[in-house]
Amino acid sequence: MAHHHEHEHHTHQQGHGHGHGHVHDDIDWAEMAPLLEAQAELFTPLYERALSWLAKEVTEPGLIVDAGSGPGVIACLFAETFPGARIVAVDGSEPLLQRARARAERQGAADRFGTLAGELPDVLGELDYPADLLWASRSVHHLGDQRAALAACAERLAPGGTLAVMEGGLPARFLPRDIGFGRPGLQARVDAAEEDRFSRMRAELPGSVAAVEDWPALLTAAGLHHTRSRTFLLDLPAPATDRARAYVTAALTRTREVIGEDLDADDRATLDRLLDPGDPAGVHHRPDLFVLAAHTVHAAVRPV
């Protein structure tokens, strides 16, 4: 599977990184590409801080693997952050990998940028050599047996190599609690519906195994040590830029499509009004729109 980060939580944030809602694995990732890219591009300041945190301890990696890379926004940031490294973007969707290759070419990194299409985690066995840094942004939670997936990732690390997973954090916020119509607290109710949908998605995955989502403990169980976690903030205050506004509009549109039936009629009506381009109180025009999100990275090292 590919998980496209963002996608995710939160909505399950969109997309591959998702901010959209949480969805199922019959999801058409290629169709999601524009949303995944827009989210990842908007979240670039957060990812850059996460990568610079990793770079403090991961020095001069030879091979960096992005497992569940989606359209390659983060993989290309790795290419920038580590100019001496070879990058391999791994994903279940070849159309998304085509976008990743095109992005690497645009930024002049094509000569050290490769892609590998196939299902995680098994496809990692096709890597030519072990990774010095293996990154998985919101991809592990799309795999039935997360513990086994982390163990497979750990096996693909060089001795002293680092596995970093972006999982958890906080759901994004776009609007004040009271937006002037509807029942206050809409986003909290959307979060609750998305948590339930996410649990159903996990339960329906092939080979689904329940696991306590204690990521440092899961990394330790995979045979890694020196676990560390850090949360990175994306804080784009009001008034929102056009790009932030477009992202929020796309994220809430997806929320309405994916979990609309899980909300009550009043909340559906509130979302419809928010998404109406002609409504001055909608997200297209509101002056109080913002983007505030927090993503957590958990990292650990394969013993030498």
Automatic annotation (TrEMBL):
Residues 1-21 have a biased composition (Basic residues). Residues 1-24 are annotated as: Disordered. Keywords: Methyltransferase, Transferase. GO terms for molecular function: methyltransferase activity. The keyword Methyltransferase applies. The keyword Mitochondrion does not apply. This is Class I SAM-dependent methyltransferase. The lineage of its organism: Bacteria, Bacillati, Actinomycetota, Actinomycetes, Kitasatosporales. Residues 65-163 form the Methyltransferase type domain. One of its GO terms (biological process) is methylation.
